[in-house]
Amino acid sequence: GFYFTQSFLTGALQNYARKHRLPIDQLAFEFEVLAVGGGGGEEGEVEALERPEDGIYTNGLFVDGARWNRDASALDEARPKVMCSPMPVIWMKPGERHKFLPTTAYQAPVYKTSERRGTLSTTGHSTNYVLSIDLPTERPPAHWVRRGVALLCALDD
Length: 157
Hints:
By secondary structure, the chain is α+β, with helices and mostly antiparallel strands. Helices cover 15% and strands 29% of the residues.
């Protein structure tokens, strides 16, 4: 799904727009980190997820420079000597942007690779940056910005 990311994400918003008869330019994603996936639960739990009525499930992302704390359901400090750790499944829920509640979540940038840089393609999009995903945190978002925390679609090794 993330091979041509902008097309995939726009398609998810288009499906929602058509279903609910809304203009696509008023839509965006809200994010919910689920308690499945990311190497901390039962085997096969991700496959057992039912398809969401709206939106998409994203599995297989890694958090670089921090970790996901399942108990607190929030971003947390990385464990010693562990730079990257798997994220649980993230539900990308489309909705009307003006109805979203304000949040103090950290807007974690998502990159296809760990290089965190890309070039602008002919479509005007970066070849490496995907989008930013709001992750709940008990610390101010600036804490994670200073640490350079990001989500990655793939690891180097």
